[in-house]
Batch of 2 targets.
Target 1
Amino acid sequence: MTPPLLSLQGITKRYPGVVANQAVSLAVMPGQAHAVLGENGAGKSTLMKIIYGAVKPDEGQVFFKGQPVSIRNPQEARKLGISMVFQHFSLFDTLTVAENVWLGLDQSLSLAEVTRRLVAKASEYGLDLQPERPVHTLSVGEMQRVEIIRALLSEPKLLILDEPTSVLTPQSVEKLFLVLHKLVSQGCSILYISHKLHEIRALCSACTVLRSGQVTGVCDPRQETNASLSRLMIGAEPPPLALTPHTPGALVLSVRKLHLAASEPFGVDLENISLQVRRGEVVGLAGVSGNGQRELMWALSGEDTRAEPAVIEMAGQPAGHLDPHARRLLGLHFVPEERLGRGAVPTLSLAHNLLLTRGEALGAGGWIRMGALAEQARGILARFKVKAAGPSTTARSLSGGNLQKFIVGREISAAPAVLIVSQPTWGVDVGAAAQIRAEILALRDAGCAVLVVSEELDELFEISDRLHVMAKGRLSPSLPRADATVALMGEWMSGLWPGNTVEATHVPA
Amino acid sequence: MFQLEARPEASKSWGFASPVLALALTVLLGVVIFMALDKDPVRGLQMFFWEPIKSAYALGELVVKATPLLVIALGLAICYRSNVWNIGAEGQFVMGAVAAGGVALLADKETSRWIVLAIVLAGVLGGMLWAGLVALLRDKFNANEILVSLMLVYVADMVLSYLVYGPWKDPAGYNFPQSKTFESVTQIPRWMSGSRVNVGLPVALVGVGLAWVFLFRTHAGFAQQVGGLAPAAARYAGFSSRKALWVALLVSGGAAGLAGALEVAGPIGQLTPYVPAGYGFAAIIVAYVGRLHPVGMVFSAVLMSMFYIGGELAQSRLGLPKSITGVFQGLLLFSLLACDTLVAYRLRWLSGRA
């Protein structure tokens, strides 16, 4: 039997207060696509950084081709033949594709030589890339291709991919998988990190499951069911959500022909956006991020007040010119995608963070009644099952999922007429995600109008009554959930809905 | 070897211990400096830490200098907590003094005692005006408030010089660049007889209370600080960053102007080119050593006042240069910045392993 290409034995890494990896062992065979499956915070990324030399383990040994190795930095990892494509790209926006690739390579090569190799490599794998384009004009999917090409040019024996599909349309995912299958057939090993079960099953022949830093199982994912994999991953299966159909009520939030030029460089112009949300319905907004969702949220929340007053109407009143506070008085509450720094002030206590959007604990003249404030915070912690020491804990010390539960709880307990939620379960563990989705549905059943923006199609299918897709600053027509399929949504994400004239250059399928 | 390791949460106890450790380091470095200058370190330290508190008179002088430092630092703390970097309190102090002096010069023998209120008010408005210029330039043209406020210090110094060398020069002053001595009705009332301490002290202490309530018990104070801690969160909540800018600068300018008025109508009693004594700059150190906390700044203002008095005594009794005051202030600030590392990090001893 051939020795594994890479094997880890007893890897332990401790951070203050947490053990990121505890006695983790893992073996990747040559030419094998090996999945590392786990929730957010399970320790996947730390483990990959250890393999790539970016983090030093406290205990344990790494073997490469059977030899014990100590990888001190990414340069050494690359010399051994290990390449990594990170979830967050490390590209220079102002340089061209070829220049970016050149920067990461042996400096003795000329730019022309690098360009030639890049084009050759790209055509070998059917990746289409224009080497002279500046990176800031590329879509996210294209940027990822640049990262992948850069990794492939070093002829890796092991390619590590960290959640590569989170930024792609379903069609782009298929293209990526073709490339990865080809790599595997040529004998390259792949370590594929994800929490998406169907992807792992489509690509990988082996899987190591992590939970709270420990290995909970090694299996062949093609032999397992979703249920058995999620049992390994989270210990239990999340209960299915009950989406009871009912007729939506009165119109609460209406946007009519919103045009808004981008307020920052590389922002997206909003073009002709019309949108209606009624009482008792969840409207989902799908799309690859960076297609104007951020700009639309600013305009809806009141963080951007440049829209004409009558273009955005809240409960029949013109609201385009109102600031976030005034819109909250009309019943509009908003959960932003950035939790720390926008949805919450990292260094302040949870109780004080309530004051960002809630005023129940304020007395005359804006006097803060500390007792009432702490009591209100305790109520939210208990009702939304937030794991925190108490109201005086700082927001920053909470895990992503717990802080999200707190922020969602803060806005839901205000009994809003309209709730807008951006990326409700980003970076949130499966248990907390299920709870947040259930809370959103309960609010809908109580008669609230809900608008959810998400990159996860599965999530939108689970909770939305109707769906829109955003592409390049434009909004597709609305589609009932029953008519929405992954394939159709994917086409629309590229801007190819009936009647749209501008194809999204952002997302080439 | 030692390694710095990030703490999961900022340490509360080190927040208090860091200024104390910084003071200890300052004393230690002070001893080294005295020894390097061939002075007896014990006598040197005595000048700074014993002489200023050894008698009722000395304590009075200590308070006289600590009061303006505290008043200015209170305003600066609100400013810095809002992420607005006004480092031109010195200029606002001078303009407060000029405005207050202008009103005081209007007084004659028959003027009512109430003119003191007008003097103080003029001082506050003078400081606000000077800081308001900074706010206006930042608001309208996005001009950097650090540079603008600093440069306006030198403009304020020039305005003061112009007045005391020109229109406001005392005709009977043997051509010295100074105004008439103010009429005695303009004197800020003494707090108790026999000491130079005036009502500036209770004013400053009330200011401590007001600042504490504003920062920690009112929604306005909360909104003001969110803009400093997380600008995107302030925008999300709907707290206006323009309002925060204006409030921060007007409050800190007004406080510095008030201190200026209390100085010229108090211990100084006339306008001279020596009104700017560096209080506006020293107050920045006071604010930071006091952790931008109203109560903490009471202690740091007293400490900084000790350095002022100690520096003067070291000049006259030990023959040390005047810059020794600045050296001590700087040592304290830099020690504090170094010690503050321990608030967010802890030292860990690594045995053998690299």
Target 2
Amino acid sequence: MNALKRAVLLAPALALSLAACGSSQPLGGGAVGGKADAARFLTQATFGPTLEDIDALTASRDYSAWLDQQRAAPMSLELPYLQSQNKSSISQPDRLEAWWRFAVTAPDQLRQRMAFALSEIMVVSEVSSLATHQDGLAYYNDLLIKDAFGNFRDLLQDVTLSPEMGHYLSMWHNQKPNPDIGIRSDENYAREVMQLFTIGLVQLDLDGSPKLDGNGNTIPTFTQSDVANLARVFTGWSWGNGTSDADFDNVDGDWTVQMQAYEVHHDENAKVIIDNTPVPAGMQAAPELKLALDKLFNHPNVGPFIGKQLIQRLTTSNPSPAYVARVARVFNDNGQGERGDLYAVARAILLDPEARAAPTPGSGKIREPLLRPSHLWRAFHATAPNGRYDYLQAQGNLAQSPLGAPSVFNFFRPTYRPLGVVAQAGLVAPEFGISDESTIIVASDELRRVAMTYTGSQGASSGASDAILLDLTPWEDRAANDPEQLVDDLGLVLMNGAMPKSMRQTLIDYVQTIPVDQTDQRVAELIYLIVSSPQYAAQG
Amino acid sequence: MQRPMNRRGFLQLGVNTLASSGLLATLGTFERALAAADTTGYRALVCVYLFGGNDAFNTLIPRSTDAYNQYSQSRGSLAIQRSKLLAINPHSSDGNQYGVHPSCKGIQTLFNNGNLAFVANVGSLVRPVTRAQFLSGTADLPLQLFSHEDQTVQWMTGRSDSPDRQGWAGRIADLLATQGYSPKLSLNISLAGTNLWQSAGSVLPYNLGKNGAATLDIQGFPGGAGRVDAYLKLLQQAQADPSLMAQQFALTETRGLELGKMINDGLGSVPGFKTKFPATTLGGDLHLVARMIAARSQLGAARQIFFVSHPGFDTHDNQLSQHAELLQVLSDAVKAFHDATVEIGADQLVTTFTASEFGRTLSSNGDGTDHAWGSHHFAIGGAVKGQDIYGAMPNLTINGPDDVDTGRIIPTQAMDQYGATLARWFGISGSDLDLVFPNLANFDKRDLGFMS
């Protein structure tokens, strides 16, 4: 038997024995409130911690105050930034540059991170006809940014009426039925707004567990008839800024304003939507849409359904039912009687005892691929000679790109369970949907290029004006004089102080084989080995 | 390690327990010897998954006057012009003539040459359903009909009645492993990333890159050797990391590195094809599959299952032009792929087939269609009893005898039967088919007859 096979076969037993230790067994990661926890909190809440941020948060010991500062921080919006460049049109590289710029430098980090999470739930993608409407994609991302700390009901309406979602799930131009020529209303948005954006397919308890009927079966949230009726609710919407009925039929329009109702195309007949909710005849498009979205928004599933997915995007793939219930309760009432307060939800997710407890074998998640370069560029204050963050390699080499999912089902599903030790422990790990035998290796090579592109490096790309250069100079003293301290400091900023001892020793041994005068190389090598390692990929 | 396991044990063992040999011992009372896996010769199944739900009622279309008029009436502005249909000539007749979409020249040629069979009106089913049962609410239906995600899961698992997360290609691999066939490179190879179909209880699928296996380029630094050693040492240490996520990541990467070298060595050792593949993603993927098949001896493979995806079939709008492009890509690619298997003398050993979560509504939503149910599929290869349509073609009248609602056609053949027919050819026999397709017993025909 070869070594690989033996390792594969032995691993499950190891996993099971670890799991048997109990989930309360701490595995390092430092005391809550210490530097390690501050780093972990910032890993969960931003596009990557920096030593300065870790020190500041550790000194203040006040995560709550940090959250409130984040709420108050001015919004960084893509469209105004892109428009300020006065280009004739907004290209895909321009839009991606704006996204990376904000990921790396925006002061409103938590807001941006929430918007990223929401973009993976209420998915629109440039892998579609939207590819040629990058201004629209920036507008869409901006609405997620604006609503990230607002109310979920407003978010739902803004998403629904955006021309981007209108095109992506074909509510734009959706018309009342025309039985004479056998035309029904388009069911695409009606189905997915329920299935993916609000309530999901089966009725849930507050803690996210499916409710069961007397026979032990799950209970559907809606029927095909509900879909067909809701499809008729969503009729009559097309370009905003229209001045006549004829504008409904325009093939192009303004991708940066909400759609508007064209009553002549709206179905005013009575309907019955989810939970036998009557929609009386004669209603106009906008009030009818409001009625339907209110109904969905107030469904008891929304808190656990959306709350659990936000937890998965920020802190852990496998929240306990109690954690989901605590977050859902905050979604249902922020303490001041408001339902759907997303800022309160973000706070609840990040301050939850389960998010702050020390890591366990099954806790945490795989870092999303996009969060790895952003982390490096933040931690090492990277800049390019041209002052931009031009980075186009994510889709090809990291299997992920901002607003670039392959379908409305995102890059991966929240229930994905890769075969192996994760499945054997009864866990899910959504990010493994894009971390397989091939993509892991391609991403590892990409992270080497990112890590090895630093001020003064010899790499082929580092002389280019758009090369995003890590600044390693603050680390070079330690590289020469105290390699152990260097490894520990890198372990703090990159791995939340949770670097296993065996890994630490491997790195210390290796770094000392590099000549002591090559301090920049010493630092860069360590960074590369850390960020390409499985130990780093797993965020405890 | 690969101990024989009894059938009952195979049925009961799930993800959590297969690794535990202790459990096997407790099943001793039921143990009886199994035949060794039949892996003589070489066979490959190639699934081309049409993500989004192919409108197969606009792929295979009646040409006879009455049947065409009925079709045209139901499809309205989405109907394909009769004069543009490409005629196919089935050996047996149900009284109507048929043609394929004008983009399907390759499919037409394969059919008329006897290398392609259509399988009519297939879908996810728990057991046969009548219109009356459906309308009265008494039918035993698949969970969450008309949902992409759920019908995809059901096509991949063969469990329309259960949220089971084990794919049937994965179950085939697990079964063959219990019977002693466990090649170093997984039986299940995906060119479309992770998928449920190839993942069941124990045998790990392998995900191939678009240009072959991914390789790590880590020796760019003058201190080269030390870097490689450190990288691999971290990888090894991570296999025992406290975090299960880190372990999983490390094991996946390790597998990728080790198998990747073997694969690229194998691919490098076989000559190129004379057959020209179209310059599309699907054409490129099937080209790589053909190369993997050509390298089967070097890869030590006696059985292989490939997963390839062709996305974009969720044609809610702009269907006429979108669907024509999608079918063109599909038809050209599968034709080239079949020709390539002929070129290397493997056409009898390779069967390509389509899968897709559902068909689409016959009725239009203006310029597109919505999610429906039954749909036609096809299988290609030298072992396919081609130039025929297997199963009854449905009545395409809206609100007609086969419609549940606005042109959502009830399938008359279950994907379980379709899959079992392919699996039987692949080497899964007798009651083992019931282990792979637990609901097969709910249908009268265990084999739809399109494989030799």
